[in-house]
Amino acid sequence: MKKLRFLLLDAGPIIKLFELGIWESFIARCDVTITATVADQAQYAVREDGDIAIDLDGYRARGQLQIVDTDVTADRAFYDQFDAAYQTQIHDGEKQTLAFLCRTAQPWQLCAADGAVFRVLGRLGRGEQGTSLEEVLLMIGLARDLPWQYTREFREKYTKLGQIDAVQGGGVRGNSAP
Hints:
- This protein is an alpha/beta fold.
- The chain has one domain (4-175): Rossmann fold (3-Layer(aba) Sandwich).
- Helices cover 48% and strands 14% of the residues.
């Protein structure tokens, strides 16, 4: 089976994959890249019945996962283009991941479970670069029922809101296109 390439993950999907017990199968089918901030966030996952042990360093050491660090100044410049309404929704890991995605010409797909990520992508005219965990799992033969924030419908809803913001001039400082 051919691996899915250029896949960026946010913390939510990583945590869900560990909860479902399919992380190993997932990384065998996908070339996964995450930012350093997302790696830090994922290791502190907690669920109702206790903590989830997520240690991504071993996967990186074995070449099964790439963890990238980014330029803090460039990440901040990316974040600063958005207005306060958007900034309050974009968390540090998302900021770093979105800035990384927007600075590269590679055909990255960003898998997230947060409406802010998809809304930003929609606002920037990059909605096609967002994907849900449901869509990725279907592509790689690991499909299963997931909570709403991991579905295609969730991604589409928030991408559309970002596209509406783009048309109406919202989401960025000074109402200019980023």
